[in-house]
Every structure is written in structure tokens, then in C-alpha cells.
Input
Amino acid sequence: MVNPLLQIDTLTKSFGDLVLFRDISFGIAEGDKIGLIAKNGAGKTTLLNIIAGLESFDSGRVVFRNDVRFAYLDQMPQFDPVLTVLEACFQSDNEAVKVIAHYEKIIASGNSEELDEAIAQMDLHKAWDYEQRIKQILTQLKINRFDQKIGELSGGQIKRVALANVLISEPELIVLDEPTNHLDLDMVEWLEDYLSRSKMSLLMVTHDRYFLDRICTQILEIDNKQFYSYKGNFSYFLEKKDERMQTQNAETDRARNLYKTELEWMRRQPQARATKAKARIDAFYEIEEKAKQRKQDEGVRLSAKGAYIGNKIFEAVHVTKSFDDIKITNDFNYIFSRYEKMGIVGNNGTGKSTFVKMLLGEVPPDSGHFDIGETVNFGYYSQDGLTFNGQTKVIDVVQAIAEVIDMGNGNRLTASQFLQHFLFPPEKQHNYVYKLSGGEKRRLYLCTVLIKNPNFLVLDEPTNDLDIMTLNILEEYLKGFKGCLIVISHDRYFMDKVIDHLLVFHGNADIQNFPGNYTQYRDWKSIKDKEKSETVKIENKERVVEKFHSAEKTKLTFKEKREFDELEPEIARLEEEKISLEIELSSGMLSSETLVEKSNRISEVMTLIEEKTERWIELSEFV
Output
């Protein structure tokens, strides 16, 4: 049997009295692509940090195979703020960067004895074109200013630089903590395709369920401090977890019935119990523990009735907004309908958040206005709205807003009951906020928005840092929400479940109203892109035919004849330059600066050869 790249044996981790997980064991073999699922606060990030060597553990073993190449994407990566983007990529602790640094040191020292080995290592780690490859990945992740200082980047941009660093190192094992946060939809789909095709083994935490389903071949779950493994993708996990929950609930029901019988027996016993009853007494306590387990009820539906909302919601009237040369909206008009559930998608920087801030009155338009109905009561969940006093208890945060929430049909929930629906058990409600994980704080913030019982919810990236269990609850809440909804999100699965149409922000004030969910939009766009591609091919072919096969075209013009005569020697010269560049690049004698210069030039030469050869073929038909 081949040794796994990573083996975890009987790992236990706790913080004081809080046990996150106990005696968990699993391995990661070559080619495994594993998703880790658990509710916020259950220890997902802690487990990843333990694997990366950033966190200690109580007992157990974490064993990597010798010399395995490993890379980790932290949830909150840090770089020196004075470095440029490109410098940060060359500060990374990956093998390619180490090999480049060693090679440059050998060149500077003039030590010819070690040069052959240094060149071999450069070849092995594909380090000659490292800079070119890192620029390609950064560009895919919409980082285009390579000389920009890290200190000038947003948190999302820093996360993307860190992701590029992890991918460029091409490790054997990669561990990713929320890799899709701060990526727009195009980037998510690019990364999905990249990881699906990659031979790297993978362990990741993500709330993006389409991402999990299309990449992962195994799901690991931490639930109630226990560890479960499912050999399949996310869809398979859902099916098998449902079976496990049904079995567990049936066992709990049987235990409760038996508990009632045994409880009666225990109460009838005299104070001084006979020795012969000890076995039955011990069994009673085991039954009691099982009977009091929390029953998994997937059928609970949480929905608020929402305050009354009239027929008039809002109307955008000739709204125009721009920041310098960046246009957000231009003479935009829209009438929002009662009970409408709208999704807003588009690349980062196209103005999605600015649009909702104009609607909410936080940012003024340059011209035009939003006419808001009198009965509209907004509830706004923003990307940067997470501000709590860490010394306040969880229950106090929510009770300060409302003691109860009206769920409709005569049902009312107290603040404590409402928190329980969002996975805050009573003992957690009396914790101080500073003890919560990042995801738990996001969940608490969501509760503070919803308990105000708004009739118009505006949610800006609500899925970031929320676990899948919370997302399921939120989705059920929104499907039953008797009010209006606008959601900005890059979570395709979430959008498909809760919205009925889209505003697509294409940039430069180009806003498309699409009557369907995200998957329907992608299918439609795929068809349109294919049609456009076919049209372009046909038009190009027609132009070539018209130009070179028309009745009027029987021979070359004087200018074309001269061009044709010059092409053949020019192509030959470029071929010679290409061969010369290839020899220089493989010599191992170039400085890093010259190496980059020569690498860029050989790309240019190869493009020129292709273009000029194609032109020579076109003209040769009429010679």
C-alpha cells in the first residue's frame, strides 16, 4: 500500500473545557480531493491550522510523508505591507522561490562546482518562467498591478495574492481555507476548473456547495465532536447524511421510550439499592444520555411573517453614478415589485455594493433618485457591518434589539429561541462575543438583522464565512420570507435557491435584467457565447474568401508582392533568433533579470513567427 501524503491519528483538540474534536483519524492519499464540513465553531480552521503547524493539539499524531511538497492558504493571510505584489510572490516559502534564490546565490558567488546541480533544480521546479506563470495566475485573479504595494490592497485582494502564491508552487498537497471568499463568479469558475484538472491532492473548507460538488471526491464532517467520512462528492454526502440522521433519530426515539420506562423503575427503587440492580442502574444512565441527545430535525422551517409592505416598493428614476472614469449606473430606471426576490451578480468593482448603498441612502447618486415606498422597512446585512462589543454576551446582543420576533400564524419566538434556530444553543448564548469564531460572529450579525423583522432584506455577500448548516437555515428562512429581497452573492448554489431573477452588472454601467436564476443565466450565456463565437468564425472566413477569392482578386498588388518577398527571409531570421534564445535560456548562465527579458522575448518571437507564417500562406495563393 502506498504511504499517504498525510496521516492524522487519534487527534484531539480542546480549548479549556471546550472540546472541538476527539480522537479523529483520516489520511490523504495522492489524488484525493477532500472537503471538510462542520458548523462554525466546530474546529474546521483549527484543524487546518494544526495540519499547517500553526496550532498545537492535545494528543494524537500529524504525520506527513517525507519530502512532501505542502502549501496552505490561510483564511486571513498576512504579507509585509511595504512589498509590491510581485515581491510578495517572491517572498513565499515555496520550493520554486527557494531554488531561484539558491541559483542566484550560486551565480553571484561564481561557484561553478554547484552550478550544474542548481540548474538541474531550476529545471525540476520549472523555475525559469516562475515570474511569467505567477503573473498569469494573478491576472486570472484580477490582480493586474504587479508593482502595487500590499499595504494598498483590500483584504480580498490580499487573499487572492495568497491564493496565487499557493497555486504557483504546484505542491503535492494543498490545504485551502475558504478559497472562494472575495472571488467573483468568473474567478470561482476558473479556480473550479483549475483544481478539477490539477493532480494536486486537496483538503479544503468552503461554503460553496457547487464548488464542493464539482471538485471533491470525499467529504469529511465534524458533527457533535464526532468525525464522519463520506466517499463521494457533496451530493453523495447529503444523501448519506440524511440516512445517518434518520437512523440516529430512530435510535433517539427508541431511547426516549425506554428512558420513560426506566425512569419509572428508578423512582420506585428504595434509597439503598440492591447490588443485583447495579447493572440496570448503569444501563439507565447510558439510556438517559442517549435519550437527551439533540434530535436532528431537518423539517423545521423558520420563516418570519415580515411587517406589512405596500404595493409601492421602490422606483429607480434616471439614476446615474460614477467614480472618476468608472461608471456604475447611467440613466438607470427600474420599478421593483412587491415580494420580488432579486439577485445581483457581476465582477468585483462593477458597482454592486454601491448600487444597494444608493438604494439605502448611504451613497448619493450623481443625478436621479430612488423613490422608496412609505411602508418599506429595510434590513441590511453588509460586508463590513460586523461591529460588536466583545465583552457583551451573545443573548444580550440580540435582546437589546428585540425580546421576541413574530413568526406569523400566531407563533412568536423569544430572542433565545431565535438564536437556537441559528445554531446557538443556550450554553453558547451566555458566552461572551469575543469567544466566538469568525463564522459565529457572522451568524450572530445575521440574527441581529433578521430579528428586527424587516419587510425588505438587502444582503451583501451574506454567505462569506457562514457554514453550510447556517446557509441551509438562511435559505429556508428566505424562501418563506414574506417580503422583498435583494442579494449580492458569488455563491451560485445560494442564489439558485432563493432568487427569481438577476441584475447582471457587466461594468461601465452596463446592467442586464435576466428573468431567471444564476444557473439559467450561465446556460443562456454559454449558448450566446457559442453563437457569437460561431458568428465570428463565419465572418472571418467570409472576409478571407472575399479578399482572396473574389473575381477581382487574381494577383497581388505591388505592395503585397513586396510584402510577400520580405516575409520568407524575415521568418527565417525569427526562427534563428528563437533557436538562439532557447540555447541561452537552457544554458543556466543568465541573471534573473536577463532571464525574464529573454523569456518575454521568446514569447514575442513565437507569436511573430505564427502571424507572419499565416500571412505568407495567404499571399502565396496569388503568387
User: Anything to note?
Assistant: The radius of gyration is 31 Å. The first strand starts at residue 6 and ends at 15. The longest helix spans residues 234-268. Residues 99 and 321 are 49 Å apart (CA to CA).
